[in-house]
Each structure stands twice: as structure tokens, then as C-alpha cells.
Amino acid sequence: MSSTEELTKRQKQVLKAIYRSLKNSGYPPTLADLREELKVSSNQAVLDFLRLLEDKGFIKRDEGTARGLKILKKGFEMLNIQPILPYVGISPAGPYSEAVEDIQWVSLGNTDGGDMLISIKGNSMKNAGINNGDMVLVKKSKEFKSGDIVLSRNDDEVTVKRFIHDDGKTYLKAENPKYKNIPIYPDTRLVGKVVRVFSRSKNGQGYNS
């Protein structure tokens, strides 16, 4: 059975509405948005549609997050649209620095297995093949092992570094000897793992994976 045959007209309408909201506003639709789209009066009717789409593998819901909707690869294939991911700003590959966040949804080659795209500023990770101007694909995670390259947040500041757990000590390590290790404090939060690097092309007009 093809993906198209697995969806009713109304279910496909919901999937299209989610995509339009992501593309046009940068955020998934609210329940109120979907009620208006479907011309229904109850949130439960909308939730039933979302549950069916999730059960069929077209979307993923994050119950703990407002507007927590993500279209999965199967959903984009059904819509015959190249997958898009949130580009959430610039992360310094240097000391902690304030993130420049400007959420947009972009398409950038093979982004399977990732949740967000981050642009890199700085050269502290150059020996790991991550250079100034590159884009990295980050997968959200709650579990990390020593050696993972991670996106770390401390208050409103972020950085991309290698997570090290060695001899009872944990810290963030640069892949450039000019930069010092960064201690992990109680309020440090590891957001996710870098799972792919898109290198900035030499002419600056695109990216190579």
C-alpha cells in the first residue's frame, strides 16, 4: 500500500496544514489553527487526527511542548516535498556566546535523523572537520557518551564542542589547541548531538555534506 493510500482526504488536509504553518510562520499550527482548518469545534477531533497521523508514521508529537509537531520523512514523501528542518541560528565554535536565533525552516540535502540545523561561527572545532560557516545537523538527545560532539546551552549562551567524561571529570573540549576546555556547570544543558556536517562550499553559495 502506498503512502497516499494510507491517508484519507481529511488526514492529508491536516498534514498539509502542518507543513504550510511550518513553512510560512516557522512554527507548527496550534489546535485552534487546525480546528479552523478542519471546520470542527472540538480539540478532541483535532487530536484524533493527529494521533492517527502519528500512528501511521507521518508525524511525531512532543506531548510536553506547545505546538510540538514534526513531520517525518514518510510525511514529506506523501506530500512529495523535500524535507525541511528548523534552522535555529548561529552557534559559536569557540567560548560560550549568545546565540543568534532566527527560526526558519529550510531544506538542505539529507537531514534524516536530525531535529535542527545550526550555523557555525568560529574555528575551535576545525580539527573535527567543523569550520567557520559550516552547518551542522543536531539530533536532540538525553543520553551522551564521551567523545560525542554536542550542542551545549548555558543560560542563553550556546556552543558546539566535544563532550568528554574521563576519570570522573566532565567538560567540553575544543578541537583546536588554541581554545581551553570548558567546565560543565550545574546549569549547563546538553541539547543534542551533531550527527552530520554540511561544509560551506568554496564559493560560499551552498553546502556540501
Automatic annotation (TrEMBL):
Domain Peptidase S24/S26A/S26B/S26C: from-to ranges: 105-195
One Gene Ontology molecular-function label: DNA binding
Pfam families: LexA_DNA_bind (PF01726), Peptidase_S24 (PF00717)
Residues in LexA repressor DNA-binding domain copies: 5-68
GO biological process, one term: negative regulation of DNA-templated transcription
InterPro entries named among the record's database cross-references: LexA, LexA-like, LexA/Signal_pep-like_sf, LexA_DNA-bd_dom, LexA_repressor, Peptidase_S24_LexA, Peptidase_S24_S26A/B/C, WH-like_DNA-bd_sf
Keyword vocabulary terms for this entry: Autocatalytic cleavage, DNA damage, DNA repair, DNA replication, DNA-binding, Hydrolase, Repressor, SOS response, Transcription, Transcription regulation
Domain of life: Bacteria
UniProt keyword Transcription present: yes
Presence of keyword Hydrolase: yes
Entry similarity comment: Belongs to the peptidase S24 family.
Name of protein: Repressor LexA
Protein's organism: Candidatus Curtissbacteria bacterium RIFCSPHIGHO2_02_FULL_40_16b
